[in-house]
């Protein structure tokens, strides 16, 4: 095969064609000595930068074409990397044009060692990057806009969520009422858990604990709809099953695919005795804490709200004795995890027994136990609400979030 072109290999360009390719390539070529003195440039670079060949060759060093910051980077990073590795690729620097303009560029260089008595030479390819730099800036602006939009949405969701939590449970003669809320993670995530406590009339109190599927602003909006619908329906309907039926109809028709679980309790006072009516919609049932007996669930499980129309809900009644307490909570309590282990119902019941001295000790104690179980970082939102009939020796009503 001596003297013949090897199959599959490109033929060498004639000298004139090779020179034309160098001069009019779609990128700039700059050749320098090892210390950076420019020895050759192509027409493409001259046209792009506005210099004359005689301005550069033998007169300027490559670093003279860079901005002040670029010269520092050239000395501290570019040249040392080139000498260490023999090549550098796609370094973004600005070339200073003949008229002072900054021309964004991507530089790639190779260092060729001495051969046949020739000195070292640095061959640099320069590609204009104005469009790429503009694209990168637009990407950065888009990222900033997205972050600002996300921050605004999060702030709006937090504002909405704050409206879902009463600033303080009402003070009701003959009852202790307390509630706590803890968001998932570091405490700054916006979820769908909420609670409400409101009086329909004197001696007629409604407490609500709910959990909307999902997180973020959509969940907060559905929580707001649920809370205000319950308040309005509780005035019109004496039975909680009717309240849940109304809410279900509203959420089914609402422009959302989010469902909701709820636990409702209506407490009515008659002759100094409190009767609690419980109704549930796919939510963990409330626990009754009574001295001398194990905590027990109250009420009957019911269907979710917001999934299908014409669902059937039921009410259950219980008379509360002095010292009795009802504990309502979301599944962030029982489903709190430590490794593969859940906090679970048994730990919850033990916490209810251990902290049943008052409504506030119930909420704060249970929350403390759940957080400790998860090393202080819950995976889901947590709501705990307690209503307690103080014993005769008690001081009466207390309230306020822990």
Features:
402 residues, alpha+beta, Beta-Lactamase, Phosphatase 2c, domain 1, 2 domains, five-stranded antiparallel beta sheet, 10 helices, 29% strand, elongated, disordered N terminus, disordered C terminus
Walk me through what this model shows.
By secondary structure, the chain is α+β, with helices and mostly antiparallel strands. It has two domains: 15-128, 2-Layer Sandwich (Beta-Lactamase), CATH 3.30.450.20; 166-388, PPM-type phosphatase domain (Phosphatase 2c, domain 1, 4-Layer Sandwich). Helix content is 34%, strand content 29%. The protein contains ten helices and 17 strands. It has a five-stranded antiparallel sheet, with helices on both faces. It is elongated. The protein starts with 14 loop residues before the first helix and ends in a 14-residue tail after the last strand.
In total, how many beta strands? 17
How many helices? The count is: 10
**Spans of 5+ residues with little confidence (pLDDT < 50)?**
1-10, 394-402
CATH class of the largest domain: Alpha Beta
């Amino acid at each position: 095969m001596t003297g013949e072109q090897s199959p599959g290999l490109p033929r060498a360009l004639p000298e004139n064609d090779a020179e034309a390719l160098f001069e009019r390539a779609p990128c700039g070529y700059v050749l320098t000595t090892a210390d950076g003195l420019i020895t050759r440039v192509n027409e493409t670079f001259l046209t792009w930068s506005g210099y004359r060949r005689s301005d550069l060759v033998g007169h300027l060093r490559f670093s003279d074409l860079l901005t002040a910051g670029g010269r520092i980077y050239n000395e501290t990073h570019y040249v040392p990397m080139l000498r260490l590795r023999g090549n550098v690729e796609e370094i973004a620097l600005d070339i200073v044009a003949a008229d002072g303009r900054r021309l964004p560029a991507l530089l790639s260089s190779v260092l060729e060692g001495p051969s046949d008595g020739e000195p070292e030479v640095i061959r640099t390819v320069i590609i204009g990057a104005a469009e790429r730099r503009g694209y990168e800036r637009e990407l950065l602006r888009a990222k900033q806009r997205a972050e600002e939009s996300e921050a605004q949405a999060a702030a709006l969701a937090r504002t909405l969520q704050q409206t879902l939590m009463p600033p303080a449970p009402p003070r009701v003669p003959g009852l202790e009422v307390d509630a706590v809320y803890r968001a998932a993670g570091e405490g700054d995530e916006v979820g769908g858990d909420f609670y409400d406590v409101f009086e329909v009339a004197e001696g007629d109190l409604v407490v609500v604990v709910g959990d909307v599927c999902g997180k973020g602003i959509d969940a907060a909006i559905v929580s707001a709809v649920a809370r205000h619908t319950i308040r309005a329906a509780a005035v019109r309907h004496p039975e909680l099953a009717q309240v849940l039926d109304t809410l279900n109809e509203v959420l089914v028709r609402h422009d959302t695919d989010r469902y909701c679980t709820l636990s409702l309790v209506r407490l009515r006072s008659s002759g100094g005795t409190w009767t609690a009516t419980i109704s549930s919609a796919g939510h963990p049932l409330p626990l009754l804490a009574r001295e001398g007996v194990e905590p027990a669930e109250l009420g009957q499980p019911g269907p979710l709200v917001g999934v299908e129309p014409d669902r059937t809900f039921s009410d259950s009644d219980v008379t509360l004795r002095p010292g009795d307490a009802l504990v309502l909570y979301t599944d962030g309590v029982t489903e709190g995890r430590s490794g593969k282990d859940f906090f679970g119902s048994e730990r919850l019941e033990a916490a209810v027994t251990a902290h049943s001295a008052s409504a506030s000790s119930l909420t704060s104690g249970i929350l403390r136990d759940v957080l400790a179980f998860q090393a202080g970082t819950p995976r889901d939102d947590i709501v705990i609400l307690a209503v307690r009939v103080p014993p005769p020796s008690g001081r009466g009503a207390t309230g306020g979030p822990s």
